[in-house]
Amino acid sequence: MELHILEHSLKVASIEKEGIQICTHGLIKLAFLASKTRCKFFSLTETPEDYTIIVDTEGFKELPQSEHISVADATWLALNVVSGGGNASNSQPIGVTKIAKSVIAPLADHNISVFMLSTYQTDYILVRERDLPMVMHTLSSEFTLLRVVNGEAVSAHSLGVTNGFVKPKMVPRPVIHPLSSPSNMFCVTSLDPDTLPSVATLLMDVMFYSGGSKEGGATSEDSTHIRFFSFSLIEGYISLVMDEQTAQRFPNNVLFTSASGELWKMVRIGGQPLGFDECGIVAQISEPLATADIPAYYISTFKFDHALVRRVQRRSSSSGLTQRIIIILSWRRRMTQMVAVSPTSASSTTAVRS
């Protein structure tokens, strides 16, 4: 398999809910008038807490300076695993659970933090630019490493740099953060960029103005229904993640859907903001899901992480699926607790998102 190191230099930022209005001009330009910018990588995800923006340095220039915007103190690079040659966007995606043991776990073992963005088309693994030599050293034995330059994938030679970590023996990773699952079901979909102008008004309403009564499935009695919407425009490809009530607002035959009309259940990771210097969070979730052969998308945001798992068809209910996932992850936690912990390791409360 090939690991493509994309050419985009990325920023990860948070926009407070009360500050979104001063940013809408730039965000609308990035989402709907991309040809008027030099931006090639843009993602906007709304959660109950804030908006998370992942954008390349050209697109970041479209955002105003504001006290309502917090920017992660790093430049990030996007990695993409593909199963064959050619452009990453034209190759078959692998899926986050399929790369859990070949990419996510080794990076966690070597103390390399990652930030995940799953889209309808593929999965992007974001790593800090300064960690790239370590990433290449860690993964060079498993992958053909290619660097994308001016749209073309060329051989990327390992820089021969190690971060000084000796790969430890594999042991079950603890799930150290609380897990929760909102009641709404989600769609992972896309649309033809040519149809974007016809639904631009609706999309703008969903992205910036739909916190109120138009969300038909979110009643005042349903306290576990959360607001989550993700829009990505990456190298001309659009990806959308929304709950099924929001999807019903779109005209027929606009959104791409699978033949089975798949819906996805969310598992939300974190009881308090996770931070960017905690290693192993993605691995803690994706490894047991991969072992149980449960397909999943994974979206990291500025404060929390989100795994989307396919709803079991036939007689299995969404609540049954959630219980199965929680049981799997909790089992990993109990197994880890059975391993003796030294006083030094017990005193540490930090981890990294890999």
TrEMBL record:
**Mind telling me which Gene3D superfamilies this protein's record contains?**
VC0802-like
Cellular compartment(s): Cytoplasm, Cytosol
The terms describing its cellular component in GO are: cytosol
**Domain CASTOR1 N-terminal, which positions?**
9-69
- Segments forming domain Cytosolic arginine sensor for mTORC1 subunit 1/2 ACT-like: 177-259
Q: What InterPro entries does the record tag this protein with? A: ACT-like_dom_sf, CASTOR1_ACT-like, CASTOR1_N, CASTOR_ACT_dom, CASTOR_fam, CASTOR_mTORC1
User: Recorded GO terms, molecular function?
Assistant: identical protein binding
Major localization class: cytoplasm
Q: Which residues form the CASTOR ACT domain?
A: 73-140, 261-311
Sorted alphabetically, the Gene Ontology BP terms of this entry are: negative regulation of TORC1 signaling
Q: Which UniProt keywords apply?
A: Cytoplasm
Q: Does the keyword GTP-binding apply?
A: no
Q: Which family does it belong to?
A: Belongs to the GATS family.
Q: What is this protein called?
A: Cytosolic arginine sensor for mTORC1 subunit 2
